[in-house]
Specification:
The protein contains four helices and ten strands; from the N terminus they run E-H-E-H-E-E-E-E-E-E-H-E-E-H. It is an alpha+beta fold. The strands form two sheets. Strands 1, 2, 3, 4, 5, 8, 9 and 10 form an eight-stranded antiparallel sheet that branches.
């Protein structure tokens, strides 16, 4: 049984369908102002975002944050670029891997850890072909059907 997402966590559901996940890592993220409040309220999106290296630092680009309405003014955030906080050794390792053809960085989820800090689960991915996508859908449907039959059989026995 899958775990439900904790309140305030945001998942990138398309990523697991579109990409083969090679490696994952949990990183901190540098946030500004009331970004934490927006994420806690679920007003952020990472479905179209990706990771990119700029001056040997890793940034998450195209992360969507909704507009925050203050008492007097509306602060537009929309598509933002935020720095990811990783050790230099990890950055160097991933920077070498991203240079390979067809490999990129995609955030899988945005969540709060036990200390209340915002973390990003970022993955090193390679794009799936069309037949890979069809095959994964087929295996998921087969697994669902198998679980249904098991449940029905177990209920029938007891």
């Amino acid at each position: 049984m899958k775990k439900k997402a904790a309140p305030g966590s945001i998942k990138n559901k398309k990523a697991r369908h579109l990409y083969h996940i090679l490696d994952t890592y949990t990183a901190g993220i540098q946030l500004i102002g009331d970004d934490v409040k927006l994420i806690r309220m679920g007003k952020a999106g990472i479905s179209e975002s990706y990771g990119q290296f700029i001056n040997r630092e890793l940034y998450i680009t195209n992360m969507h944050l909704a507009e925050r309405e203050n008492d007097r003014l509306v602060i537009p955030k929309n598509k933002t670029m935020r720095k990811l906080l990783l050790n230099r050794r990890e950055l160097n390792k991933w920077e070498k891997r991203v240079v390979e053809k067809g490999v990129s960085l995609v955030p899988l989820s945005l969540f709060f850890n036990n200390d209340g800090r915002v973390k990003v689960e970022i993955a090193l991915v390679k794009g799936k072909r069309e037949y890979d996508k069809r095959q994964s859908i087929k295996s998921e449907e087969n697994q669902r059907e198998l679980n249904r039959v098991k449940k029905k059989y177990l209920n029938h026995i007891s």
